[in-house]
Protein: Lipoprotein
Amino acid sequence: MKPSQLRFVLLLTLTFAACKSQASRTEPESPALQPSAYERLTEYHLPPGLLPDNVLNYTLKADGEFTLTLKSKCSIVYSIPDDEVLVHYDKHITGTLKNLAISDLTGVSTKEFFWLAVTLIHKDKIDDDVVYFNAGYLYRSFPESVFASPRSCSANLSPEV
Ligand SMILES: *[C@@H]1O[C@H](CO)[C@@H](O)[C@H](O)[C@H]1NC(C)=O
Structure:
């Protein structure tokens, strides 16, 4: 083999090896091409910390309908001015994500005098820093900063369900 031929073969081999290793690097990661559930919330101008940090996976349809699975059901205590609010997240959460709101929500509840299902989470305007949790006719307002980043969630504070 002439030296120029050898170089050509070597180059081909190297190119092939590079392509192969790139393919094996990207292949198992294709589900990760989906934006995270937290990125989805910010796309709709909602703070990422509305969800705990243990999201396992989710599906989101074009009309905004979503299903979301947590690693386990759990609760978070949010400190708001002059008060604390206990919020429980079921393992499976569903709802409809739209601009500034999550409606038809299931799987999230808040403890007031007793546990109430939160059916709507919303903001009035992009620039508002207040987030509302509606449970039927009742609502709670939170400073948006409370949900600035996803918090870890405790299994020990959950209602007996
Ligand atoms: C999410 O993960 C759970 C547990 O691995 C699995 O049963 C479920 O099918 C997954 N859902 C989606 C939408 O990928």
Q: What stands out?
A: Residues 37-157 form a domain with the at5g01610, DUF538 DOMAIN fold (CATH 2.30.240.10).
